[in-house]
From TrEMBL:
Molecular function via GO: methyltransferase activity
PANTHER family in UniProt: ABC TRANSMEMBRANE TYPE-1 DOMAIN-CONTAINING PROTEIN-RELATED, METHYLTRANSFERASE
Protein species of origin: Uncinocarpus reesii (strain UAMH 1704)
Family annotation (InterPro entries): SAM-dependent_MTases_sf
Record-given protein name: Methyltransferase
SUPFAM superfamilies: S-adenosyl-L-methionine-dependent methyltransferases
Length: 236
């Protein structure tokens, strides 16, 4: 049995349920945004993973998956404690997360001052709010501290834009640029206006500048995506 929490309309849960029809998959999210048609072995609950989990003895999971949860959790140690004790001995947890940091290897990030400011202000705003966005690099040690073994952190560079020469990376960068541009307003507007005291107009002007810098083909930008996973010991 698998439990998932992600921000992508339950796509992961539906795909896994389709691929493994003998597996029972439960998806959890704060809002009922998932499709109404799902595989018969897939169910969705509207719930807050930071609340006390109410699964009973005998309902432990073989696998627990979370994706893109940065900015939504106030107490990661408590969450991983609940994950640990709701896995079967030998079960696995996997967390997938982008860094909100942006990088370049040719110093072209220096030509994008708004993006550099965006990283700083966004991290500060989410930390003040109590649910930090840039948490991907913390996952590995937090899983170890929670008692998991065989913990790995597989890190992949993901280009932003179509600047790479490699066709596969160029296509990946095209998708990532679309995602980044679409994510700016949902991630920025509330934090900037409610936490950092920007006006709506100031935030909109900043977002317009950010979009221009991200779309500039001379800015060879990328981020990092972490696949972090670990196992509950058999003897625990």
């Amino acid at each position: 049995m698998a439990l998932t929490r992600d921000t992508l309309l339950g796509i992961w849960a539906i795909d896994i349920a389709d691929e493994f029809p003998s597996c029972e998959v439960i998806g959890c999210d704060l809002s009922p945004i998932q499709p109404t048609w799902v595989p018969p072995n897939c169910r969705f609950y509207v719930d807050d993973v930071e609340s006390d989990w109410s699964y009973q003895p005998g309902e432990e999971f073989d696998y627990i998956h979370g994706r893109a949860m940065g900015g939504s959790i106030s107490n990661w140690d408590q969450l991983y404690h609940q994950v640990f004790y709701n896995l079967k001995p030998g079960g696995w947890v996997e967390m997938q997360e982008y860094e909100t940091a942006v990088y370049s290897e040719d110093n072209s990030l220096d030509n994008a001052p708004l993006i550099k400011k965006f990283q700083q202000v966004g991290d500060e705003a989410s930390a003040r709010f109590g649910k930090r966005l840039n948490v991907a690099t913390s996952y590995k040690q937090q899983l170890i501290d929670a008692g998991f073994i065989n913990v790995q952190d597989d890190v992949y560079k993901v280009p932003i834009g179509t600047w790479p020469k490699d066709p596969k990376m160029k296509q990946l960068g095209r998708y990532q640029l679309t995602q980044v541009l679409a994510a700016l307003e949902p991630f920025m507007m509330a934090l900037y206006t409610r936490v950092m005291d920007y006006t709506v107009q100031e935030t909109e002007v900043l977002m317009a500048g950010l979009r221009a810098e991200f779309k500039n083909p001379n800015n060879h930008l990328y981020t990092k995506f972490h696949f972090v996973y670990g196992q509950r010991p058999q003897s625990s």
